[in-house]
Amino acid sequence: MSRLVAAVLLLASVCAMAQSAGRRPFTFEDMMALKRVAEPAISPNGKWVVFSAVEVNLDNNTRRSHLWVVPVAGGDARQLTIGESGDERPQWSPDGKQLSFTSDRDGASQIWIADFDAAAASLGAARKLSKISTGASGELWSPDGKNILFTSEVWPDCQDDACNRQRDEELAKSKVKASTFTHLLYRHWSSYSSGKRTHIFVQPVAGGTALDLTPGDHDAPPFSLGGQDMYAFSPDGREVVYTSNVDEVEAISTNNEIFLVPVTGGMPKKISVSPGSDSTPLYSPDGKWIAWRMQARAGYESDRFRLVIYDRQNGQIRNLTENFDRWVGTIVWAADSKGLYFTAEDKGDAPIYYVSIAGNDVARIADGTNDDLAVTGDGQTLVFTHMSIQAPNEIYSAAPGHPPAQLRQMTHLNDAVLSQISMQPLEPFWFMGSEKIKVEGFLLKPPNFDPQKKYPVKFLVHGGPQGAWGDDWSYRWNPELFAANGYVVVMINPRGSTGYGQKFIDDINGDWGGRAYHDLMLGLDYAEKTYPYIDKNRECALGASFGGYMANWIEGNTTRFKCIVSHDGMFNTESAYGTTEELWFNEWEFKGTPWANRDLYRKWSPHLKAVNFKTPMLVVHGQLDYRLDVGEGFQLFTTLQRLKVPSKMLYFPDEGHWVLKPQNSRLWYKTVNDWVDQWTR
Question: Which of 545, 566, 647, 665 is catalytic?
Answer without folding.
Answer: 545
